[in-house]
Design goal:
two-stranded antiparallel sheet, 38% helix, 12% strand
Length: 167
């Protein structure tokens, strides 16, 4: 590479630049530098171009996404989808009940417990379950089975009383 010097604005004492002549054409030779306004740091093997800007790095989150966080989010989304499906089922079921009640067809009726025979005949043997109920979860959702059972019992009572409220 044979470098030549070319004067800008010839005859008026303009600045000089370095050029490389290739096949009769002059190509300006430019050195890379970086720095803030009024500062120059020449690029060299021991001073390479920066690949990250401190101002940009400061804007990045302190806790970036990790596979563990993604797994937790996936589990939460799965649980949410399951709850949405259950909710949609209940809406359909309750819509059918409401339609039956509004059309005059027989719907849910509650029977006072006093009118049902609760007499037990024969021998009764108590059996103790070997699984601790508090450790069982509902359909792999992480929701304890007891909480889900309590919710379902409350739902059944609510559904059983729908006809009483609207009758």
């Amino acid at each position: 590479m044979a470098l030549e010097v070319v004067e800008l604005n010839p005859g008026s004492g303009g600045s000089s630049i370095g050029v490389d002549v290739v096949n009769g054409a002059a190509f300006e030779v430019v050195k890379q530098a970086f720095g803030g306004e009024g500062e120059v740091s020449m690029v060299a093997a021991n001073n390479p171009l920066p690949i990250a800007d401190a101002a940009v790095l400061a804007k990045l989150p302190a806790n970036p996404a990790t596979s563990i966080k993604q797994d937790e989010q996936t589990a939460l989304i799965t649980t949410l989808n399951s709850l949405i499906e259950t909710n949609n089922y209940l809406v359909q079921f309750l819509t059918q009940l409401t339609g039956a009640m509004n059309s005059g067809q027989p719907a849910l009726r509650t029977i006072p417990i006093a009118s049902v025979s609760t007499a037990v005949t024969g021998s009764v043997t108590a059996t103790v379950a070997s699984t601790v109920v508090s450790s069982v979860t509902n359909f792999g959702t992480g929701i304890p089975a007891k909480e889900m059972a309590d919710d379902m019992n409350n739902l059944m009572v609510t559904m059983a009383n729908i006809n009483n409220v609207t009758a």
